[in-house]
Specification:
The structure holds three protein chains of three kinds.
Chain A (H helix, E strand, L loop, with lengths): L2 H21 L3 H26 L3 H31 L13
Chain B lengths: L4 H18 L6 H25 L8 E9 L4 E7 L1 H20 L7 H20 L3 H22 L8 H29 L9 H7 L3 H16 L10 H8 L2 H26 L1 H27 L4 H21 L3 H32 L15 H14 L6 H14 L3 E2 L6 E2 L2 H24 L17 H19 L2 H41 L1
Antiparallel strand pairs in B: 1-2, 3-4
Helix pairs in contact in B: 1-2, 1-4, 2-3, 2-4, 3-4, 3-10, 3-13, 3-17, 3-18, 4-5, 4-10, 5-6, 5-10, 6-8, 6-9, 8-10, 8-11, 9-10, 9-12, 10-11, 10-12, 10-13, 10-18, 11-12, 11-16, 11-18, 12-13, 12-15, 12-16, 13-14, 13-15, 13-17, 13-18, 14-16, 14-17, 15-16, 15-17
Chain C lengths: L1 H21 L1 H5 L2 H23 L5 E9 L9 E8 L1 H24 L6 H20 L3 H19 L6 H32 L4 H10 L2 H4 L1 H18 L8 H4 L5 H10 L4 H8 L15 H20 L5 H21 L3 H28 L12 H4 L1 H14 L6 H15 L3 H26 L14 H23 L2 H5 L14 H24 L1 H10 L1 H8 L4 H48 L6 H21 L1
Helix pairs in contact in C: 1-3, 1-5, 3-4, 3-5, 4-5, 4-12, 4-16, 4-21, 5-6, 6-7, 7-8, 7-10, 10-13, 10-14, 12-15, 12-16, 14-15, 14-20, 15-16, 15-19, 15-20, 16-18, 16-19, 16-21, 18-20, 18-21, 19-20, 19-21, 19-23, 20-23, 23-24, 24-25
The chains are: A mainly alpha, B mainly alpha, C mainly alpha.
Amino acid sequence: MTVGHVIVVAGILFTIGMMGVLARRNILVVLLSVELMLNATALAFCGFSRLVGNFDGQIMVFFIIAVAAAEVAVGLAMVIALFRLRLTVNVDRVDLLKG
Amino acid sequence: MTIHLFSLAILLVPLAATIRLFFVDPKQTARIHGIAKLATFIPLVVSFLMWMGYDTSGEKYQFVTDIPWVESIGLGLRLGADGITIAMLLLTSLVMFTGVYVSGSITDRVKEHYILLLGLGTGVFGVFLSLDLFFFYFFYELAVIPMFLLIGVWGSRAAQYSKEYATTKLTLYLTAGAVFALVGLLALYFQAPEGARTFDIRKLEAMGVDTDFQRVWFPVIFLGFAAIIPMWPLHSWSPIGHAAAPSAVSMLHAGVLMKLGAYGVLRIGYGLMPAGADHWMGWVALLCVMNILYGGMVAMAQRDMKFIIGFSSSSHMGYVLLGLATLGVTGVSGAVFLMFAHGIMTALAFGLIGFFYDQTHTRVLDDLGGMIKQMPFIGTCFVIMAMASAGLPGFANFASELLVIVGSWNAEYTLAGTSITVRYLPTIAAVWGLVVTGVYLLRAVRDAWFGPPNPRWDGLKDAVTFKQKMPFVVLILVLTYTGCFPGRLLDTIESGVRNVMERVEAAGAVDAAEVSPESAPDDEGAAK
Amino acid sequence: MAVFLGWLTLLAPLGAAVALTISPSLRNSSRGPKVAIASVLVSFFTALIFLIGGESIEYISRWSWMDLSTSDGDGLLIELGILVDPLSKMMLLVVGGVGSAIFIYALGYMKGDKSIGRFYAKFALFVFSMLGIVFATNFLMIFIFWELVGASSYLLIGYYYEKPSACEAAKKAFLTNRVADFGFLLGILMIYDLAGSFDFEAIEAAVVGNNLTSTNPAQLAFASFLIFLGAAGKSAQIPFHVWLPDAMEGPTPVSALMHAATMVAAGVYMVIRVFFCFGGVGSIDWGWAPEVIANTGAVTAFLAATIAMVQRDIKKVLAYSTLSQLGYMVMALGVGAYGVAMFHLTTHAFFKGLLFLCAGSVIHGCHHEQDMFQMGGLRKKMPTTFWTFTVGMLALTGIPPLAGFFSKDLVLDALHVRHFGGLQFVATVTAGLTALYMGRSWFLTFFGKYRGHAEVHESPKVMTFPLIYLAICSVLIGAVGYFGGFQEYMGDRAGRDIGVLHINASLAITSVFVALVGYGIAYLFFVKKPELADRAKARFSFVHRLLDNRYYIDDFYLWLVGSVQQSAAQFCRFIEERIVVRGMVGGTVAGTRFAADRTRRLQTGRVVFYAYLFLAGVTLAVCAMVLA
């Protein structure tokens, strides 16, 4: 298993996540897809860390996990608040910032 | 690090007063007035001392203060004065001082008014004193922003325009101009090789700037400053701004703020980009004819007194531009002298208009008339002002306009990009401008002050107390003194101008040497 | 000592004016006018001292006013100074001699006026400005005081500022002169270009020494023409004459000193001072400028005399008469007879000042009635005024041996010597017209029955004393000047002057005869058979209307100012408000608003749309990086 394999997997994961963010309308799925993208990045960091041979990349992974956890906490709270207000989790229905 | 008490004091005293005013009880108006008067009187004294202490044959920049700040990028508070600066400092401190005296009629939010007014003053002093591109720009913005609030809050309606319209327009124009200037200033900073970059004007002058760079960037900087001069066709903010502003602000605005532009052209444009100035100023000589004649013609068609003086300012600033465009010591000295004279004269005009407007609540000539009966002192001052503005000998305006005209008569204006050289025409237009000026000023005098007394104005109160009369008397005395004995002030200005113009003339000589081998074959071709 | 005296003479009236302006106590006290009178008497006595001193008191004193020159003499240097030579001495005598009398006279005339202090302040300011012209050493100095004279004239014509007509006349005078000064300043600048200096000495040296006449004849001729425009403005020559009759709105002493004796003569004086720019016909061919000058003078002299015949206002008659006499002086200038022009200027100052003061005395006596048809029979009631007026009138019409006879005949002689037959004819006819209109006003005012209503009284001594003094001068000054060598004293002006002229018997007899005919017609029309005047008026109603409307020149100017200039101003205002403000500024605003409205729609508020945009941006950036 070379770094190349890891990067390819990370790329595939990232693309799946991105397509999820772009294509799905359910806000929960969008959040899940974002998580997928974050994890793809984490995976890529690990792979590069191994290639370079130091632990910088793996330290970044910890940051990502921490950020992801925080994001989920805030994100879910906002989703619940949104659902209470609008009774929907469809992102297309929420366009209050329309110019 | 060098510190000169004078240059620092002139900047810090209004600033300190601004801060001090924050902590004064708004109800203690007498105290607020007192602080403002003191904070404008000290710079007046200091600038006078600087004038007296200025050595016309000494260093180029005197009274230098140099406090390094961010040394890695060559940034520091650098202040200093040459002859041009001294004239402008005298003008600013005089207008500030008298401006505070005529704002006695302001009763609404007195504290905030003075905080902004003194903040504005700090900015103006800062621009004139700065020897550092960054601080030049910083103070320039500092001078513009308080103006927005001063007109927006304490202003009055100007004909069909609301004060909010006027102040927004003014601020937009001036900030847009400032952005142009900022881009130019940054370009000036970055044109130097890495490591040698500095905001220090003196060092930049010593290093010199590439000629091609100057030719490309001079118009950008010039346009930035031209908006505040204001050069035609960028002038339309100015008459409305004048008309809407309260008297002290009109005085500062027309008297001083407009001179920032011309000063910027001289200090940055001519000082750092002499070859660019030499290349482009021919066009300015043509455009300023529009200022002089068109501004005068529009003034002729106005009925609101402040609009008349507003358009006349744009007309007079045309003479300043013409003087600058001559690229000769006589014309440029005349232009700087005229900046001084015009500043004092318009300050006087707006102070007087403000004085009667506070009581009449109208400035339209058709409503006024015969007021000299009720207001002999103010009326006499107004006639004197009109005479000075119309270029009557004995006042500084005449002396300076004469220099501009004589200087411009001998100048040749080469229009960059074409092979056309203009002579005489701008001067002829400028001399005709004197006739136009006479027409609208005398008409304003006749319609507002002379004629049968109007019973509607019987209740008007003339200026009687010393405090009321003092600002007008001071301004008139300065105008007549410098008009009759311009020697000392003119020597000071000349020494500053000569330093700047030496470099421009050198650039012009190089330019001529470059051009002549090319143009010689052309001439032969034309002959064939 | 003499240098000090020169500066003192110049500055004394200024000091009086300043003192009267800034000190209310002096202004309102009876000492105020006396201070002003004393300051003018200084110039009278200085003139006498200078004239007695002769050649030993001739000097130039200079003071550097604006100095932009470098140590090696490059650059501009503007000086003010005092130039004392025969010409300025003589002019000083005119200003001081006539001025002192009029200042004293004004004490009586202005008595009871609340703001007499203000009047004297302005009057003294005028004398200062006039002396500046007299003493000027260079073109810029003359221009400076030229403008100051214009301003003090503005202030004094508009002295009764509550009268709209006075304000209008003041403005008209100032602006007409401004238009003329437009030419004057350009002329000065052209001469500066040619000669490289403003100084009279240096220019004379350049013109004569560098022979500009042959190297740059066209420029020199045009420059001298432009300079003459300035002179034509102050001396009210056609087409700038319109302000002078209106200027009679000022108090009569002002009309006497400024608009008859001195200020209007400043143009003539200036041309004599800078004669070297003009040259003279006959010596070298100096181009067309002198001929234009001579013809302008002739046209002015004749037209003004014809208009004077139909005026009702006693001051207006004298004003047109002044125009006419200035025309004589300008004719003399045009043929290069500078000494003669100066001689006529001097005599005219005395007798025309006298006539104006008499008119003022009449007006004062009739309680500010100026219409001659409301007077009549004043000979008995105002004997001193009558006799002095008669002297002035005879002097003006050139009856020997009074002053006007000598000077006017020398002008005719100069025209004759230079072979200007046509101009000589016009001048002679004008002499007859002069007698006609002066006789008319003399008969209407002093003879027949009194037609007014107010009680008439002779003026007080303080007014009649100056009348008698000026009358004596008007009798003597011509003969004294002619036989006492006035022309020789003025010098021969480097050989360009016409030289010393003598009375030509045949010319003199002709002109006196023409004048007597004029008097005869006046007597016939206004005393013997008044109905003849009405019949002539009816018979030649077209001519009368033309004259009454001053050849419609004023109306033409009114149209020019009212319609053309004002339309141009309104047009500029239209451009300013509609095109610059509403078009350019409004256009920018509309453009910004339009762009904002379009870009606003990009802000859909939908997250997914933003995500797509983001993706597109990243893709573009990556592509750019790869390609680079």
